[in-house]
Amino acid sequence: MKIATYNINGINGRIDNLVRWLMNSKPDVVCLQELKAEDQKFPEKVLLKAGYHAIWQGQKSWNGVAILSRYGEIQETRRGLDGDPEDTHSRYIEAFINGVVIGCLYLPNGNPFPGPKFDYKLKWIKRLTKHAKKLETFNLPVALIGDYNIMPTDLDTYKAEKYLDNALFRPEARKLFRNLLNQGWTDAIRKLYPQKRIYTFWDYLRNAYGRDAGLRLDHFLLNDKLEGNLISAGVDKEVRGWEHSSDHAPVWIELSKSFRDIPA
């Protein structure tokens, strides 16, 4: 089972790149972030033609999350997190696919620091952590996947000193990320590559991609029912170099357990 995450940074403007990557990489399940499209403008028919069913929660101009699957129609289990009834951001959607609970998330950026956006980020992480604890009681394989907008360690940025006052790297956010891990979640990339510099995002400015001046923002957190099935992971870095690309690259993991066969 191959699961991927991709911050598409505007799904309709980059739909050709998305379909091209889907045809090349053939992930079974995909979590998308930053759709930047209202629900009625989500390109469902294009994705169905490419072989993927979808559920989504859109939002005009900002945010938006979706889950794609080659396994057929998707059983949605949740959208949004508890804890703030006034939060209207489209940042979390969840489904049960092929025996696995898939939580697709777009965690707040939080910049500028300090300020209300950073405060919102910290509160959102705490809400996610509370929901993650609830998911653990279900006794099912669970993966929390997406753009966390957090660099957990110095290895996750090309130049740590540049980001000391950036919300992506602030110790308050990193501590909350560690608290989440300490519930029993495994950072899939770090499990397989504990000391390797791996990036998933390159800014559009200053030739960041060409210089490989990247950040690791996109993560897979696996619970103990799932992490034992992890066999490989990677970043499709070349996609970031395609014309009119997102500033993120697709990231993927492969699990040894396949719940049923799907078309090649």
Automatic annotation (TrEMBL):
Residues 4-248 form the Endonuclease/exonuclease/phosphatase domain. Belongs to the DNA repair enzymes AP/ExoA family. It comes from Mucilaginibacter aquariorum. PROSITE patterns: AP_NUCLEASE_F1_1, AP_NUCLEASE_F1_4. Coiled coil: none annotated. It is an enzyme of class 3 (hydrolase). This is Exodeoxyribonuclease III. Its cofactor is Mg(2+). Its EC number is 3.1.11.2. Keywords: Hydrolase, Magnesium, Metal-binding. Pfam families: Exo_endo_phos (PF03372). GO terms for molecular function: double-stranded DNA 3'-5' DNA exonuclease activity. InterPro entries: AP_endonuc_1, AP_endonuclease_F1_BS, Endo/exonu/phosph_ase_sf, Endo/exonuclease/phosphatase, ExoIII-like.
